[in-house]
Amino acid sequence: MAHQHMQWVLATTESAADLEYVSASVPSDLGENQVLVEMRAASLNYRDLAIIKGSYPTTRAVPKTVPGSDGSGVVKAVGPGVSSFKVGDKVMMHLVPDATEDSLPRFEAISSGLGQSSDGTLRELAIFSQGGLVRMPDNMTFEQAATLPCSGLTAWNALMGLRGRELKAGDHVLVQGTGGVSIAALQFAVAAGATVVATTGKEANRKRLESLGASHVVNYRTEPAWGDLVRSLTPESRGFDHVIDIGGHSTLGESLKAVRLDGIISLVGLLGSGDVQVDMLRALWSLCIVRGVLLGSKAMFRDMVAFCEEKDVHPALDDVVFGLDRAREAYERLEKQQHFSKVVIKIS
Asked: GO molecular function, one example (predicted)?
């Protein structure tokens, strides 16, 4: 007997208005390595917006796919070959279920991942392979845990993913804006004992950034040449050990001013606008490491979970939480950049 539930599907890939909320069924007989998950929460990424607009960098989504890559839930049933999970376990999803434990997914693999080519998280019931699931942190709510799979893991990889150059206590970290990756990086860095400086274009976010542990907050709208300014906030103006660059060409020029000798700039996003392109050779004058970061491996995911439990990290969420039936409004809030950190959808 099949289980009935509600889910969203991508009717086309042109706008959030083309999302459809439909009744669906999942089979009660599970395959060898399949896990039935009762979804409890999901969170949205800018990738999700790009998918529904058909503007994702590689391939368009498959129509009728369930959108969303990030989520958390409870195991309701397991297939006969499942050994990693049991009924009642709390789990999260990795965006690329078929990835090996240590592999770093490329754009092509991500494009065939959850919410684009295979069914994602915006549904009440979901079947995943056991290899595509990771145990949820014991100290988090479902909504908090639902923020970890994409933006949380990307932030973790940026700070901890380069072997031998992992973030350590006493380091200085620069984060940009108040999106999911930046806030996760801020929270991880503070928990690890680092000093964090944050930039924002919204003065209203200053107090919230400070409350999460930012030692200084700089408004990049009133200080457009913020690279030298933030550098002056580090000891002897030496610059930052880690810079999390989310804007691409619009921020990289200032990031190169802010980074210290042999420091690391992690390129994690393309959210900025502007016509000026920053030449890669600019890194030669800064003598730094510039590293492209997309998600992270499953091994990194497990390390992040252990860290969050050890340091009792609780991911910051947006003030507005949406029910599953209001997913269109959640996309709209993300698109208008009205949110702080992560837009979360609660699935009852």
From this structure: oxidoreductase activity
- In the numeric block, the tokens 């150059």 are attached to 165
The separation between CA 105 and the C-alpha centre of its own chain, rounded to angstroms, equals: 14
For 211, the enclosing helix (H) or strand (E) is helix 206-211
Please tell me what DSSP assigns to residue 342. -
Distance between CA atoms of residues 92 and 150, nearest Å: 11
CB-based burial label for 20 (10 Å; 0-12, 13-18, 19+): exposed
Query: How would you label 258-278 residue by residue, b for 16+ Cβ within 10 Å and e otherwise?
Result: bbbeebbbbbbbebeeeeeeb
- The token duo for 319 is 């003030």
From the list 10, 51, 71, 46, the residue with the least C-alpha distance to 347 is 71
Q: What is the rounded distance in angstroms from the CA atom of residue 202 to the CA atom of residue 225?
A: 16
**pLDDT tier for residue 274 given thresholds of 50, 70 and 90:** low
Contacts 24+ apart (CB under 8 A), 12-17: 12/63, 13/51, 13/52, 13/53, 13/54, 13/60, 13/61, 13/63, 14/52, 14/53, 14/54, 15/52, 15/53, 16/49, 16/52, 16/328, 16/331, 16/332, 16/335, 17/328
Nearest-angstrom CA–CA distance, 301 and 292: 18
| Nearby residues of 245 by Cβ (< 8 Å), 6 or more positions away | 176, 251, 252, 255, 265, 266, 267, 268, 269
Q: What is the DSSP string of 89-124?
A: -EEEE-SSTT--SS----HHHHHTSBTTTB--SSBS
Q: What is the pLDDT of residue 281?
A: 83
Give the model confidence (pLDDT) of 104-136 as tens digits: 888 888 888 899 989 999 999 999 999 999 999
Please provide the average confidence, as pLDDT, over all residues in the chain.
93
pLDDT above 70 (res 43)? yes
Which residue carries 């690890």 as its tokens? 192
pLDDT score for 58: 58
Task: For residue 244, give both structure tokens.
Answer: 């999390």
- What is the mean predicted confidence (pLDDT) over 165-182? 97
> What is the reported pLDDT for 59?
65
Q: Quickly tell me which residue has 């091994």 as its tokens.
A: 299
The pTM of this model reads 0.95
Give residue for tokens 């930052």.
240
